[in-house]
Amino acid sequence: MKQITSRDNSTFKDLRGLVEDAREQRARGQTLIDGIHLVATYQQQGGVPLQLLVAESAIDNPQVADLLALYPEVSTLCLRDTLFRELSGVASPTGIAALIAIPVAKTDSPTNTCVLLDAVQDAGNVGSILRSAAAAGVKDVLLGAGCAGAWTPRVLRAAQGAHFSLNIREQVDLLSFLQSTHLPGVATVAQHGTALYALDLRQPVAWLLGNEGAGLSQPLIEAAKLQATIPLASSTESLNVAAAAAICLFESVRQRS
Length: 257
Hints:
alpha/beta, elongated
C-alpha cells in the first residue's frame, strides 16, 4: 500500500485536479467516488475501480477493510488524513474513495421516459434529480449546456449511487434532441401550463426541467408538445427544481400503476 504524505506528491495533485474540474473529468473519463456507501454501491453494480484510496485513520475500520478485501488486485493509496479530507471535500469523510472510469453513455434515442436538464446549475439539485429519476425507474438523463457536472463530487454525494443505474449524457443539444425524438416533450413551467394532475402521463415522455432562476429556455418550451404546471398554494411562487422533478416523475409512476 503506497503512502502519500505530501500535497506536493504528483499523484495527489492529479487527483485533486480531477476532483475540482468537471472538464478534466470529462477529458480523462474518470472521477472519484467518496465514502463507504458509494464505493459499496459501485461494487454491488459490478464496478471495478481503477484505484482505491484510504485515509490513515480508516485502515482498521471493518467496513473499509471489507471493501478493500473485495479488490485485492486493485492498487491502493494510503493518504494522510488531512490530504484525504482535502480530496473528499467533507468535514468527516468515512475514509475510503475510489478512482473510477466514467461509464460511456449510450447515445441511442430513449424509448421510455427520460429527463432533460436545461442549465440546472446547483450540484445538489442535479444529484437529487438523478436520485429521483433512478427511484422512479427512469434510465436516461440528458444534461444540456450550463448544468453542473454530473460526475462531480457534490453531485455524486447528492445522488447516493443513482449514477450507477442511469445512462447519463452531458453537454447534449436538448433542442435537437427534442426535435428528433418520438417522445412528447413535457416542459415544466411555473405558470400557465396544464395542471400536472390533468395530464395523461401513462405513456413515455421527455420531461424538461430548467434553470433554478430563469427556468426553461423559450425555444425548449416552444419545442415541447406539452407544458405542465404543478398546482401550488396561492402564496407560493414556485418549487425547487429537484422537488418539482420528483413530483412530476412520481405522478407518472402513479398513473402507470
